[in-house]
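Bumping my old thread because nobody answered last time. Still need a sequence for this structure:
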């Protein structure tokens, strides 16, 4: 296992990048702590796989260094880094049986037959392939092959890190939940450093201790699932995390109040320097009322079982509200805010409240 340090790391696929806009991965500094589980989360094309491939050694960065513990591995080959990597699409040997595929990484490292047999049996149980151990991989379905690929990545106990590049894309939804649960159990049991790339917020938030959110080649926030939900550091995080994402309303901020379109004013729980920006609040932190708050127009109501999603508008701006199932909403035409749950943004970035002047 290893602590992975990224120093002044950046990458461009162009031979002579002219500026930051030419970099697929903007400069970053970060330490992946030994034994922690991380998720790299973001939309397609944001730089997640580029970063993972730099860590694994499949790609050399344009600038900066990669260190495993205190060893500089920037120019080291993938095999020298002692990692396991599981890719988005299955990497298996079709002519081998499931058992032989799972055993192959251990046989290459000279482990004894008894250990290999026990370890293969354990991994086969975790990925649900015990009944197929003696079947050739060639005739198996795509999701079965991906489970083999996942098992091959997990079979070694001595790796510095296990890297997952959207490994559950071809797995059926129920098995995704099962495998995520097993991955978390493996992490607790063996303490591998794990980095899991995904565009699926559910996968990221249920797997990782720390989630690294990327947008347009840049890391915009690193935090726990609760921190990402409650205090998004960037508007993209507020939009991307949650279903639906955070509501944003343009506002003039001054002191402890926000002036919205139409002259409406909301109280804030903190004190802020004067600025033109926006307030952000989660749909779960809004509530319908018959008086006070902001007047809204309800466009439609979506019943999603455990709650109802109210699609409303305020001064032409969309506003989503989550209402508990069974709560009467007829005649309610205003929305109330919990001031403690309001975040303030200037540009794309969250602004922390200031200490009031004495």
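Sorry it took so long. Here it is:
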């Amino acid at each position: 296992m290893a602590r992975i340090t990224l120093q002044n790391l950046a990458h461009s696929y162009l031979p002579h990048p002219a500026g930051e806009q030419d970099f697929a991965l903007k400069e970053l500094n970060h330490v992946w702590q030994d034994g922690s589980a991380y998720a790299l989360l973001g939309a397609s094309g944001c730089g997640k796989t580029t970063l993972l491939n730099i860590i694994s050694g499949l790609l050399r960065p344009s600038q900066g260094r990669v260190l495993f513990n205190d060893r500089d591995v920037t120019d080291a080959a993938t095999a020298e880094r002692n990692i396991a990597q599981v890719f988005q699409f299955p990497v298996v040997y079709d002519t081998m049986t499931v058992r032989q595929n799972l055993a192959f990484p251990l046989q290459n490292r000279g482990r004894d037959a008894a250990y290999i047999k026990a370890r293969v049996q354990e991994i086969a149980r975790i990925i649900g392939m015990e009944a197929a151990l003696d079947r050739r991989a060639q005739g198996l379905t795509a999701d079965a092959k991906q489970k083999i690929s996942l098992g091959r990545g997990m079979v070694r106990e001595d790796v510095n890190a296990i890297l997952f590049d959207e490994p559950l894309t071809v797995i059926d939804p129920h098995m995704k939940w099962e495998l995520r649960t097993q991955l978390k159990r493996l992490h607790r049991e063996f303490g591998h450093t794990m980095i899991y790339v995904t565009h699926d917020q559910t996968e990221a938030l249920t797997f990782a201790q720390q989630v690294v959110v990327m947008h347009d080649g840049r890391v915009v926030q690193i935090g726990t699932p609760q921190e990402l939900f409650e205090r998004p550091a960037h508007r993209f995080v507020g939009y991307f995390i949650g279903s639906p994402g955070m509501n944003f309303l343009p506002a003039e901020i001054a002191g402890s109040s926000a002036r919205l379109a139409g002259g409406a004013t909301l109280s804030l729980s903190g004190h802020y320097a004067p600025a033109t920006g926006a307030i952000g609040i989660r749909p779960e932190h809004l509530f319908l009322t018959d008086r006070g708050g902001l007047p809204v127009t309800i466009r439609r109501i979506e019943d999603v079982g455990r709650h109802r999603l109210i699609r409303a508008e305020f001064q032409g701006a969309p506003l989503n509200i989550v209402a508990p199932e069974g709560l009467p909403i007829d005649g309610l035409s205003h929305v109330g805010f919990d001031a403690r749950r309001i975040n303030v943004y200037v540009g794309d970035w969250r602004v922390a409240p200031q200490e009031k002047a004495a």
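Residues 286 and 315 are 17 Å apart (CA to CA). Let me know if any region looks off to you.
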